[in-house]
Amino acid sequence: MPRSTWYHNINALKRVDRHARLKDKIREIYHYHNGRYGYCRITLSLRKQGVGKHELSNFMESAQKLALDKLSNDSC
């Protein structure tokens, strides 16, 4: 194994997940509403809690796709 790969893997374990708080909030909202909240409602709920628009969009870009399906209504 190349030295650079070894150190890359070691350092990857030490990195802090910068979206951990946001992931926990999303899970909390989703489970609190028994899985009835989709993308739009969760986003609105997070915005009401003070999570910024850019923080949400950056998280969504990095996550690519949540396990929750977006509602078919595109009005959000």
TrEMBL record:
Pfam families named in the record: HTH_21
Domain HTH-like: residue ranges: 21-51
Protein name: IS150 conserved protein InsB
